Amino acid sequence: MTTTAQPQTGRAEGLASRYSTFMSRHASLMPTFAALAILILLFVGAQIYFGNFITPRNLSALLLDNSYLLILAVGMTFVILTGGIDLSVGSVMAFTGILCARLLSEGFPAIVTIPVMIIGGGAVGLMVGVLVQYFEVQPFIASLAGLFLARGLAFVVSLESIKVEDPIVLWFGSTRFRLGEWYISPTGILALLVVAIAAIVLQWTRFGRTIYAVGGSEQSARLMGLHVARTKIIAYVISGVCAGLAGLALTAYSGAGYPLYGVGTELDAIAAVVIGGTLLTGGRGYVLGSLVGVLVYGAIQTVISFMGAEQSWTRIIIGILLLVFIVVQRVIVARSDRRR
C-alpha cells in the first residue's frame, strides 16, 4: 500500500509543480483563460436553462451581429498594448459609414467608396497618433479630440440616415455562406481575417514585438534602439483603419449610414479587449483574447434577449465583469513587480 501511494504522491506533486511553473511564466494568460471559462459557462448555463441556446443558428448569428465590434476590438488591442487608449473609434465608424452611404447615393462606385472609408479612418488615427507622440498630449485627450472631430464630420456629411442600395456593399451583410445549418457572412469572414492578420503581426513580426516592448517599458524600448515613435503612431493608424473597416461592416449589416451610429461603441471595444486579457497598462495581451472578449459580450446580449429582459442589463453585467478583470490585472502586475 505504501509503495503504491508514494509514486502517486510523487506524480501529484510533479503535476502541481509543473502547473505552478506554467502559471508563473504565463500569468498574463490568466485573464484570457478566465474569459474563456466565463464564455463556456455562459453557453452551458444558457443551454441548460433554455434548452435550445447552443444551436448553429445562434452561434452563427453571434459572429454576424458582432463582426463590427470584433474589428474595432482588434484595432483597440494594438493601441492598448502600447499603453494608450483610443476613444475615437466609435465616431470614426459612424463617420466612415455615413460617408460611404453619401458617396454611394451620389453615384460613386463601391470600389472607390470602400478605400475612401479606410483612408478616412486611418487619417483620424494618424492625427491622434501624432498628437500623442509629437505633441505629448495624453491619449485620452487626443483620442477624445478625434472622437468629437469624427462625430462632427459625420453630422457635416448628413444629419439624417442614408439608405444604402449598392449591391456590392449590401453583399457584405446579406450574403450567407452555408454549411448545413451553419452560416457565415462576408462581414464575419472579414472580421476573422482581421483577427488572423493581427495575431500573426503581433506574434511573429518585428513590429509586433516592438508593440509589446513599447507597452512594457517605453524608456527601455528607446534604449534598445527600437522605433518607438513610429510604432505608436502606426498603432493608432491601425486602430483608425479598423474603425473604417468596422464602418463598412456596420453599414453593410444595417443597410444604411447614420451619424449617430457607434455612440459608446468605443467603450464596448475597450471592455471586450480588457475582458479578453489585455492589460490597460500595456505590454501584455492577445488578439485572440479580444476575440473571446467580444464573444463574451455578444453571448451576454443574446442570453438577455432570450430572457426578454432590458438590454441595459448587458451594460450592468459587462461593468461588473470589467471591474473583476481590472482587479485581476492589478494582482498580475503586482505579482510581476514583486518577482522583479
Q: What's the shape? A: globular
Number of strands: 4
Order the strands across the largest sheet as they lie in space: 1-4
Cα-atom radius of gyration = 22 Å
| Average pLDDT taken over every residue | 89
Task: Provide an overview of this structure.
With 340 residues, the chain is mostly helical. It is globular. The strands form 2 sheets. A two-stranded antiparallel ribbon has the order 1-4. It has one domain: ABC transporter involved in vitamin B12 uptake, BtuC. Helix 2 packs parallel to helix 13. The protein has helices at 2-25, 30-50, 56-81, 89-105, 110-134, 139-157, 167-174, 186-204, 206-216, 218-223, 228-254, 265-275, 287-307, 312-339, and strands at 162-163, 177-179, 182-184, 256-257. The mean pLDDT is 89. It contains 14 helices and 4 strands. The N and C termini lie far apart (44 Å).
Topology diagram in text:
Elements: H1 2-25, H2 30-50, H3 56-81, H4 89-105, H5 110-134, H6 139-157, E1 162-163, H7 167-174, E2 177-179, E3 182-184, H8 186-204, H9 206-216, H10 218-223, H11 228-254, E4 256-257, H12 265-275, H13 287-307, H14 312-339
Helix pairs in contact: 2-13, 3-8, 3-11, 3-12, 3-13, 4-5, 4-6, 4-11, 5-6, 5-11, 7-11, 8-9, 9-11, 12-13, 13-14
Provide key terms for this protein.
14 helices; two-stranded antiparallel ribbon; 3% strand; 340 residues; ABC transporter involved in vitamin B12 uptake, BtuC; mainly alpha
Summarize the structure.
This protein is mainly α and 340 residues long.
